[in-house]
Give the backbone structure.
Amino acid sequence: MKKKTKKFTILHSNDMHGDFLAEVQEGDGHLIGGLALLSGYLNKVREEEEYVIYVIAGDMVQGSLIDSEYKGVSTIEIMNFLSPDVVTLGNHELDYGLPHLLFLEKMANFPIVNANLYIKQYGKRLMKPYLIMNVAGYNILFIGVTTEKVMDTLASDNLIGTFVSIEDAAAEIGKICNAYKHDDIDLTVAVTHIGFESDVELAEMLNPDWGVDMILGGHSHTILEQPAVVNNILIAQAGVGTDQIGRFDIVVEDATNSIIDWKWELVPISSRTSEEDVSLKKFIHEYKKKVDAKYNSIITRFSEKLLHPQRERETTLGNMIADALAETAETDVILIGSGSIRGSELGPVVTLGDLKACYPYDDSLTRYCINGENLKRVFSHIMRTENRNGEGECFQVNSRVKAVYSDVESKLLSLNVDGLPVADDERYTITLQGYHFNNSKANLNISGEELVALGNPKVVATSESGVLEEWLRHHPNVTSKIEGRLVFVPEHL
């Protein structure tokens, strides 16, 4: 008797971060990326293949002016054009607050699933935990899991930070599979936003009897040559932005409820691979015209383009931002979250729109008093090797600071302020964004109580983006260099 099989095409994106517009590829003039071209590719595959499923693994929002100006409303409307079959939450979906996220969910014409975000006081999940799709007579179970970084974001809201927590991802997947993965479920897919390394760990923890076949992930912006296979589970991710999309062509056997054949590729999105979706391009440009009219004024010009190629290291753009905010805060040390800087470059001409797109977050800045022993503890924590894996919380610091960390010995070798070694018993001022104070234990290895123990903190700015904009207007021709503020060495100097 011939076994019943069916071929499916699963397309997947993650960490799109408001990357709406195509760019001209240097050298040959071809367009790359952008949602109009991505939509064109989706339309093409949906016409060519019989059974197509499109999945987004979190972080649709944040990273562009079109998104931030409309607090994600524009993004959801644009995503409705793409019509994904299932989406999971990323950490940035919470950037505009939990109430606003629930509003955005109501706007979405597609299901958003998450199994491990709870209103703990009532023992209820915040979102729909799973989706069962019936495609060509085959039942496909999707389970959404998000990163613990969502808890960090929720901690910024005192109304909800006390009763919403993240449950163990593996246990939640087990609960869903045990309850719903019966003989009629032919394929089980975990759609995650926890980072590639965490996906691997998750796959190792999953009981094979639960029958998870595939993990489609996000958060760490990982580019893969081919999917990892762990515990007989396929694990894939599609980098960041809209310059590419992941594509699985799989064959599923009905009798064994398993994938018996598969092929995966990371498909570049360009004018070579697809035609632009003209209607979506027009829709996006209506938003762009409104934003451009508001934000096209020039606020400054740098002496050269400043760069932020990776968040784990000191960058020229990070140095400039940290110095500008530290000057206003009149502080010994400032820690600016590298992830606050959403662009990889800025300048030399800087419009208000450029600045808002590159640095979209707006938080408070508060100055605290800390002793040298605790300051060294903070730097030992943020500079540790395991924090620089694409999933950790990394920082940019001001020019008064120089820290040296040994990766081999896993310890802080030295920490200087104004050229002098930090002394354990001396007092220093440290300025933090509100988000990092609210999550100081996890991000800095120091509690909020310890940060306020040596004196009353002072709010030095209620709007860091306003401070940065004003500083740039009065500091033309800025330049910035890599100065060795944060140094990582392979062995003891």
Observations:
- The chain has a mean pLDDT of 89.
- The chain is about 30% helix and 30% strand.
- Residues 301 and 472 are 9 Å apart (CA to CA).
